Amino acid sequence: MKRILMTLLVFVLLAVPPVSGAPDTSARQPSAGCAEHYARVHQVPVELVVAIIQVESDWNPYAVSRSGAVGLMQLMPATAIRFGVRDRFDIEENIRGGVAYLAWLVRLFKGDLRLAVAAYFVGESQILLRGLAYSSRRAFKYVSRVAQIYRDLRRPGVPRVEPGPWSRRSGGG
């Protein structure tokens, strides 16, 4: 009897898909291609865009933070408006707006990726107010996590982002 119950339990567990907040990995491929496309359009390292998406949303296009940030690149409402994003849950719009904002930050901080990433997390005004520095433990942890993924992706032999259907697009966003 015990063996039958165990077999039945295993069958039920295998038959029912796991409940998870993680996105379907089949959705990651077009998102990665879109990230690669807009990174090239805005001339920022694709590995940096991928690292930010990984840390911000873990590739979940429906991610919503407690502070109101939404989507793969966790755009706040004001940032979305500023960069022409109408639907923050739309994968292409979210990535286009997020990468445009990241590129703007890289230019603002004269290529200092550390400051640009910190500003992506806390907002550029916070970094500028602190004299081009960030001191919060959360910001330091965020920058460190993005930097580690970025470095790992840039190592020789690490598979690059595969081009998806987005890479066929031409022109800017």
Question: Care to describe what's here?
Answer:
The chain is an all-alpha fold and 173 residues long. The chain has a single domain (28-155), classed as Lysozyme. The chain is built from 8 helices and no strands. The chain has helices at residues 2-15, 28-41, 46-57, 77-82, 91-108, 113-122, 124-129, 137-154. Helix 2 crosses helix 3 (46-57) and helix 6 (113-122) packs across helix 8. The radius of gyration is 19 Å and the shape is globular. Mean pLDDT is 81; it is low at 1-26 and 162-173.
- Secondary structure category: mainly alpha
User: What is the end-to-end distance?
Assistant: 63 Å
Number of helices: 8
Count of DSSP strands: 0
Helix content class: 55-70%
List SSEs in N-to-C order. Answer: HHHHHHHH
CATH class: Mainly Alpha
Low-confidence runs of at least 5 consecutive residues:
1-26, 162-173
Question: How many domains comprise the coordinates?
Answer: 1
Radius of gyration: 19 Å
The appropriate CATH architecture is: Orthogonal Bundle
Q: How much beta, percentage-wise?
A: under 5%
Short key terms for the protein model shown above:
disordered C terminus, mainly alpha, 173 residues, 57% helix, Lysozyme
Spell out the blueprint of helices and strands.
Blueprint: H1 2-15, H2 28-41, H3 46-57, H4 77-82, H5 91-108, H6 113-122, H7 124-129, H8 137-154
